[in-house]
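tool_call predict_complex ligand=6-phosphogluconic acid
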Amino acid sequence: MIKVFNSTAQLSRAAAEIFVQTAQEAVQENGRFTVALTGGSSPEQLYKLLAQPLYRDMVPWEHTFIFWGDERWVKLTDDRSNAKMAFETLLHHVPISKSHIFPMWGEESPEDFALIYEKRLLNHFGGATPQFDLILLGMGDDGHTASLFPGTSVLQETERCVQAYYLEPQSMYRITLTAPCLTQAKKIVFMTYGEKKAKALYEVLEGEQNPTQYPSQLVQPVHGETIWLVDEAAASKLSQKG
Ligand SMILES: O=C(O)[C@H](O)[C@@H](O)[C@H](O)[C@H](O)COP(=O)(O)O
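tool_result ok
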Protein backbone atom coordinates (compact mmCIF):
# COMPACT_ATOMS: atom_id res chain seq x y z
CA MET A 1 0.00 0.00 0.00
CA ILE A 2 1.32 3.45 -0.91
CA LYS A 3 0.01 6.61 0.75
CA VAL A 4 1.09 9.94 -0.71
CA PHE A 5 1.13 13.08 1.43
CA ASN A 6 1.71 16.69 0.48
CA SER A 7 3.84 17.37 3.55
CA THR A 8 6.23 15.51 5.86
CA ALA A 9 4.13 16.75 8.78
CA GLN A 10 1.07 14.93 7.42
CA LEU A 11 3.21 11.86 6.62
CA SER A 12 4.63 11.79 10.17
CA ARG A 13 1.16 12.15 11.69
CA ALA A 14 -0.03 9.19 9.63
CA ALA A 15 2.97 7.19 10.85
CA ALA A 16 2.19 8.14 14.46
CA GLU A 17 -1.41 6.99 14.06
CA ILE A 18 -0.25 3.64 12.62
CA PHE A 19 2.26 3.27 15.49
CA VAL A 20 -0.42 3.92 18.14
CA GLN A 21 -3.02 1.68 16.51
CA THR A 22 -0.55 -1.18 15.96
CA ALA A 23 0.70 -0.91 19.53
CA GLN A 24 -2.81 -0.98 20.99
CA GLU A 25 -3.87 -3.93 18.81
CA ALA A 26 -0.70 -5.92 19.59
CA VAL A 27 -1.10 -5.44 23.36
CA GLN A 28 -4.79 -6.33 23.12
CA GLU A 29 -4.01 -9.53 21.18
CA ASN A 30 -0.70 -10.66 22.70
CA GLY A 31 -0.10 -8.54 25.77
CA ARG A 32 2.90 -6.76 24.29
CA PHE A 33 4.07 -4.62 21.35
CA THR A 34 7.49 -5.27 19.80
CA VAL A 35 8.77 -2.67 17.37
CA ALA A 36 12.04 -2.08 15.50
CA LEU A 37 12.92 1.58 15.03
CA THR A 38 14.74 2.98 12.04
CA GLY A 39 17.52 5.51 12.02
CA GLY A 40 18.32 8.30 9.59
CA SER A 41 16.48 11.62 9.50
CA SER A 42 13.10 10.50 8.14
CA PRO A 43 11.64 9.26 11.45
CA GLU A 44 12.67 12.25 13.60
CA GLN A 45 9.36 14.10 13.17
CA LEU A 46 7.50 10.87 13.97
CA TYR A 47 9.50 10.27 17.16
CA LYS A 48 8.93 13.86 18.32
CA LEU A 49 5.19 13.46 17.68
CA LEU A 50 5.06 10.22 19.69
CA ALA A 51 6.73 12.06 22.58
CA GLN A 52 3.91 14.63 22.64
CA PRO A 53 1.06 13.96 25.12
CA LEU A 54 -1.54 13.52 22.34
CA TYR A 55 0.17 10.36 20.99
CA ARG A 56 2.37 9.52 24.00
CA ASP A 57 -0.63 8.92 26.22
CA MET A 58 -2.20 6.50 23.72
CA VAL A 59 0.78 4.12 23.51
CA PRO A 60 0.92 1.25 26.08
CA TRP A 61 4.59 1.96 26.88
CA GLU A 62 4.63 -0.46 29.85
CA HIS A 63 4.00 -3.31 27.38
CA THR A 64 6.22 -1.97 24.58
CA PHE A 65 9.63 -3.39 23.61
CA ILE A 66 12.01 -1.36 21.47
CA PHE A 67 14.61 -2.85 19.13
CA TRP A 68 16.36 -1.34 16.12
CA GLY A 69 16.40 -2.32 12.46
CA ASP A 70 20.01 -1.24 12.08
CA GLU A 71 22.76 0.84 13.60
CA ARG A 72 25.97 2.55 12.72
CA TRP A 73 28.74 0.95 14.81
CA VAL A 74 29.52 4.09 16.81
CA LYS A 75 29.21 4.81 20.54
CA LEU A 76 25.76 5.68 21.84
CA THR A 77 27.08 9.19 22.53
CA ASP A 78 28.05 9.69 18.89
CA ASP A 79 25.73 11.98 16.90
CA ARG A 80 25.66 9.38 14.11
CA SER A 81 24.06 6.82 16.45
CA ASN A 82 20.49 5.87 15.53
CA ALA A 83 19.84 4.98 19.17
CA LYS A 84 21.08 8.39 20.36
CA MET A 85 18.63 10.13 18.02
CA ALA A 86 15.74 7.93 19.18
CA PHE A 87 16.53 8.51 22.88
CA GLU A 88 16.77 12.27 22.38
CA THR A 89 13.59 12.63 20.30
CA LEU A 90 11.43 9.93 21.91
CA LEU A 91 12.64 7.42 24.48
CA HIS A 92 13.80 9.90 27.13
CA HIS A 93 10.33 11.50 26.98
CA VAL A 94 7.99 8.52 27.40
CA PRO A 95 7.27 6.21 30.40
CA ILE A 96 9.10 3.14 29.13
CA SER A 97 11.36 0.97 31.25
CA LYS A 98 15.02 0.94 30.21
CA SER A 99 14.78 -2.86 30.45
CA HIS A 100 12.40 -2.77 27.49
CA ILE A 101 14.88 -0.94 25.23
CA PHE A 102 17.56 -2.87 23.31
CA PRO A 103 20.04 -0.55 21.59
CA MET A 104 21.84 -2.31 18.75
CA TRP A 105 25.30 -1.55 20.16
CA GLY A 106 27.71 -3.07 22.68
CA GLU A 107 31.35 -3.10 23.81
CA GLU A 108 31.98 -6.36 21.93
CA SER A 109 33.20 -6.57 18.34
CA PRO A 110 30.39 -5.84 15.86
CA GLU A 111 30.39 -9.45 14.70
CA ASP A 112 30.16 -10.80 18.27
CA PHE A 113 27.47 -8.29 19.17
CA ALA A 114 25.42 -9.32 16.13
CA LEU A 115 25.30 -12.83 17.64
CA ILE A 116 24.38 -11.40 21.04
CA TYR A 117 21.58 -9.28 19.55
CA GLU A 118 20.28 -12.23 17.59
CA LYS A 119 20.14 -14.32 20.81
CA ARG A 120 18.37 -11.43 22.56
CA LEU A 121 15.78 -11.38 19.76
CA LEU A 122 15.28 -15.14 19.84
CA ASN A 123 14.85 -15.03 23.64
CA HIS A 124 12.32 -12.23 23.29
CA PHE A 125 10.34 -14.37 20.83
CA GLY A 126 10.61 -17.53 22.94
CA GLY A 127 13.10 -19.16 20.60
CA ALA A 128 10.78 -18.79 17.62
CA THR A 129 11.59 -16.76 14.51
CA PRO A 130 11.43 -13.07 15.49
CA GLN A 131 8.14 -11.61 14.29
CA PHE A 132 7.94 -7.88 15.00
CA ASP A 133 4.52 -6.30 15.31
CA LEU A 134 5.95 -3.29 13.51
CA ILE A 135 9.19 -2.44 11.76
CA LEU A 136 9.81 1.18 10.79
CA LEU A 137 12.12 1.66 7.82
CA GLY A 138 13.56 4.47 5.75
CA MET A 139 15.00 4.21 2.27
CA GLY A 140 18.18 5.81 1.01
CA ASP A 141 18.34 7.55 -2.38
CA ASP A 142 20.24 4.47 -3.58
CA GLY A 143 17.37 2.18 -2.58
CA HIS A 144 18.99 0.75 0.56
CA THR A 145 16.99 0.14 3.70
CA ALA A 146 18.15 -0.55 7.24
CA SER A 147 21.82 -1.30 6.55
CA LEU A 148 21.09 -3.46 3.53
CA PHE A 149 23.19 -1.56 1.02
CA PRO A 150 23.45 -2.27 -2.72
CA GLY A 151 25.93 -4.93 -3.72
CA THR A 152 26.79 -6.04 -0.18
CA SER A 153 27.07 -9.70 0.82
CA VAL A 154 24.54 -9.24 3.65
CA LEU A 155 21.85 -9.15 0.93
CA GLN A 156 22.48 -12.86 0.31
CA GLU A 157 21.89 -13.84 3.96
CA THR A 158 19.20 -16.48 4.29
CA GLU A 159 19.65 -17.80 7.84
CA ARG A 160 20.89 -15.17 10.28
CA CYS A 161 18.57 -12.48 11.63
CA VAL A 162 21.30 -10.02 12.54
CA GLN A 163 24.56 -9.38 10.71
CA ALA A 164 27.42 -6.91 11.08
CA TYR A 165 29.82 -5.97 8.31
CA TYR A 166 32.26 -3.27 7.27
CA LEU A 167 30.63 -0.82 4.86
CA GLU A 168 33.46 0.41 2.64
CA PRO A 169 31.84 3.56 1.18
CA GLN A 170 31.11 4.86 4.69
CA SER A 171 34.32 3.49 6.26
CA MET A 172 32.35 2.14 9.20
CA TYR A 173 30.84 -1.04 10.51
CA ARG A 174 27.09 -1.42 10.21
CA ILE A 175 24.85 -3.86 12.05
CA THR A 176 21.45 -4.74 10.64
CA LEU A 177 18.41 -6.98 10.69
CA THR A 178 18.65 -9.12 7.59
CA ALA A 179 16.04 -9.58 4.87
CA PRO A 180 14.89 -12.97 6.30
CA CYS A 181 14.19 -11.22 9.60
CA LEU A 182 12.53 -8.13 8.16
CA THR A 183 10.20 -10.22 6.00
CA GLN A 184 8.78 -12.00 9.07
CA ALA A 185 7.28 -8.76 10.40
CA LYS A 186 3.53 -8.40 10.76
CA LYS A 187 3.68 -4.81 9.54
CA ILE A 188 6.39 -2.75 7.85
CA VAL A 189 6.10 1.01 7.43
CA PHE A 190 8.50 2.83 5.14
CA MET A 191 8.76 6.60 5.58
CA THR A 192 10.28 8.08 2.44
CA TYR A 193 10.18 11.66 1.31
CA GLY A 194 12.04 14.15 -0.84
CA GLU A 195 12.73 14.48 -4.54
CA LYS A 196 16.12 12.76 -4.14
CA LYS A 197 14.30 9.49 -3.37
CA ALA A 198 12.02 9.61 -6.42
CA LYS A 199 14.19 7.55 -8.80
CA ALA A 200 14.97 4.84 -6.25
CA LEU A 201 11.33 4.70 -5.15
CA TYR A 202 10.22 4.19 -8.74
CA GLU A 203 12.86 1.46 -9.26
CA VAL A 204 11.94 -0.29 -5.99
CA LEU A 205 8.19 -0.23 -6.51
CA GLU A 206 7.73 -0.23 -10.29
CA GLY A 207 11.11 -1.11 -11.81
CA GLU A 208 12.60 -4.49 -12.70
CA GLN A 209 13.22 -6.91 -9.85
CA ASN A 210 16.83 -6.07 -8.95
CA PRO A 211 17.24 -6.39 -5.18
CA THR A 212 21.03 -6.38 -5.36
CA GLN A 213 20.89 -2.86 -6.74
CA TYR A 214 17.71 -1.82 -4.89
CA PRO A 215 17.74 -3.76 -1.57
CA SER A 216 14.42 -2.27 -0.40
CA GLN A 217 12.87 -4.73 -2.88
CA LEU A 218 13.95 -7.52 -0.51
CA VAL A 219 11.45 -6.34 2.10
CA GLN A 220 8.41 -8.40 1.04
CA PRO A 221 6.70 -9.58 4.23
CA VAL A 222 5.82 -13.28 4.19
CA HIS A 223 2.67 -12.88 6.29
CA GLY A 224 2.36 -9.17 6.93
CA GLU A 225 1.77 -5.94 5.07
CA THR A 226 4.00 -3.13 3.84
CA ILE A 227 2.81 0.45 3.97
CA TRP A 228 4.79 3.10 2.10
CA LEU A 229 4.26 6.61 3.50
CA VAL A 230 5.71 8.96 0.92
CA ASP A 231 5.45 12.60 -0.04
CA GLU A 232 4.54 13.94 -3.49
CA ALA A 233 8.15 14.69 -4.35
CA ALA A 234 9.32 11.13 -3.68
CA ALA A 235 6.26 9.74 -5.50
CA SER A 236 6.74 11.98 -8.55
CA LYS A 237 7.94 9.12 -10.82
CA LEU A 238 5.34 6.55 -9.72
CA SER A 239 2.41 5.61 -11.97
CA GLN A 240 0.42 4.02 -9.11
CA LYS A 241 0.06 6.54 -6.29
CA GLY A 242 -2.16 4.81 -3.77
O1 LIG B 1 21.07 3.92 9.71
C1 LIG B 1 20.48 4.48 8.80
O2 LIG B 1 20.92 5.44 8.16
C2 LIG B 1 19.09 4.07 8.45
O3 LIG B 1 18.60 3.03 9.07
C3 LIG B 1 18.97 4.03 6.96
O4 LIG B 1 18.52 2.86 6.39
C4 LIG B 1 18.03 5.15 6.62
O5 LIG B 1 16.69 4.75 6.89
C5 LIG B 1 18.16 5.55 5.19
O6 LIG B 1 19.53 5.81 4.94
C6 LIG B 1 17.34 6.81 4.90
O7 LIG B 1 17.92 7.84 5.65
P1 LIG B 1 17.19 9.27 5.76
O8 LIG B 1 15.92 9.03 6.49
O9 LIG B 1 18.15 10.13 6.54
O10 LIG B 1 16.97 9.74 4.34
